[in-house]
Amino acid sequence: METPFPPFEPNGPDDSARGPRLREIPLRLVFPNLITILAICAGLTGIRLAFENRYELAVSMVLLAAFLDGIDGRVARLMKATSKFGAQMDSLADIVNFGVAPALVVYVFALDQARSLGWIAALIYAIAAGLRLARFNVMAERENKASWQSEYFVGVPAPAGAMLVLLPVYLGFLGLATDRTFAYLSSIYTVLIAFLLISRLPVWSGKSEGNRLRRDLVLPMMLGVVLYVALLMSYTWEVMVFTVAAYLVSLPFGARKWRRKYGTLTIEEPGIGDDDIGRHI
Predict the structure, then answer these.
(1) Residue 271 above 60 pLDDT?
(2) Which residues pair with 204 in a beta bridge?
(3) Residue 249: inside a domain
(4) Which residues cross the membrane (predicted)?
(5) Helix H segments across the chain?
């Protein structure tokens, strides 16, 4: 029979026998992680919709996942809610939203007609996206970062890769016949995008603090953004094809700017490669 009163403890309560005490977490620390979880849900839902042959919704969900995955880190920094847990969640979301989901959507839509070659192309892209994200995380963890890291990416970033690899789907929506020839060409294109992800090509990021816009160009730029969004809402897949083409065309110009400044065609910065890989395995 239990006594109605707790036993007498002359030295006070013994907290060592208790489990870890739960503490309250500020809501601002939870909000960015909720955005990351929503991004994962959107990416996985896009995969399901693709298998249900609802391709337009599938692509929309993948692009939404990429958007949410792109803003969660910025929201965390604005709210001063960055954490190691959030960083790990973001890395897991990246591989789903920028690697697995786009690869499966483009496979179900076009690459499956190339049979094993199409599946191999989708696998290569998904693995390349994972390698690209791993390299980015290694570089982000460095204490001493190179000055060029605020201005250039090493290879095409994973969010842009997800947008680029879906080009065969955009073209299919515009009425291009998705026959076996289209599947083979799409497989080659998918492998090409995978190569751009893991390459050492210098890709201009536009994040440098030294980039400034003339005052007289601010309003025209804002008007241009509004026009782009309006066209995207009205002519979604035409604008997406144009965006992919414009991005691919811009890559040589970024590499040319790097070569003029640093004298090389690719980024050969010490520490990106075997030493980093070996240290983090």
Answers:
(1) no
(2) 152
(3) no
(4) 29-51, 57-79, 91-110, 116-134, 154-176, 182-205, 217-233
(5) 27-51, 55-78, 84-94, 101-109, 116-140, 158-165, 167-173, 180-198, 218-234, 236-262, 274-280
pLDDT of residue 146: 60
Judge whether residue 206 has pLDDT over 70.
Answer: no
Instruction: Please state the domain count of the chain.
Output: 1
147 domain-assigned:
yes
Give the range of the structural domain holding residue 84, as residue numbers without chain letter.
26-206
Question: How far apart are the C-alpha atoms of 156 and 72, rounded to whole Å?
Answer: 20
Q: What pLDDT digit, counting tens, does each position of 39-60 carry?
A: 889 999 999 999 999 999 999 9
Those residues whose C-beta lies under 8 Å from the C-beta of residue 65, and which sit 6 or more positions away, are: 39, 40, 42, 43, 46, 93, 96, 97, 101
Q: Which residues, 6 or more positions from 45, have their beta carbon under 8 angstroms from its beta carbon?
A: 61
Reply yes or no on whether the pLDDT at 37 is more than 80: yes
Pairwise CA distance, residues 125 & 259, whole Å: 27
Residue 278 lies inside a defined structural domain of this protein: no
| pLDDT, mean of residues 164-186 | 92
Asked if residue 18 has pLDDT above 70, the reply is no
Radius of gyration for the alpha carbons in the chain, expressed in angstroms and rounded: 24
Cα distance between residue 243 and residue 240, in whole Å: 5
CATH (domain of 66): 1.20.120.1760
Residue with tokens 């570089």: 139
Contact 153, 220 (CB under 8 A): no
Q: Please spell the DSSP secondary structure of 238-266, one letter per residue.
A: HHHHHHHHHHHHHHHHHHHHHHHHHS-SS
Note whether residue 82 is domain-resident. Answer: yes
State how far the Cα of 103 lies from the Cα of 121, in Å rounded to an integer.
9
Structure tokens at 223: 């008007």
